[in-house]
Amino acid sequence: MKELVETIAKALVDAPDQVQVTQEENDKGILVTLRVAEADIGKVIGKQGRVANAIRSVVKAAGIRKGVHVIVDIE
User: Fold this and answer.
1) Which domains are delineated in the chain?
2) Nearest CA to 23 among 53, 62, 51?
3) Which of 27, 34, 39, 72 could serve as a FRET partner for 10 with CA atoms 20 to 30 Å apart?
4) In the chain, which residue ranges form alpha helices assigned H by DSSP?
């Protein structure tokens, strides 16, 4: 899941070298945390959070295919 979020985020931002993605697994599922440059945060969130919700939907669908619950957190 980490690679998927990283690929999507790097395609959206102006500074792809500053994209940081971490992944933590626990008994509830997988938590993926995305960090981008401060100037690019608006591009990742989008108007009214539409881009962020789209990223979460894609990752959630990929998680369902693998049988895991995935949460994407954007910091």
Assistant:
1) 2-74 (3.30.300.20)
2) 62
3) 27
4) 2-12, 41-45, 50-66
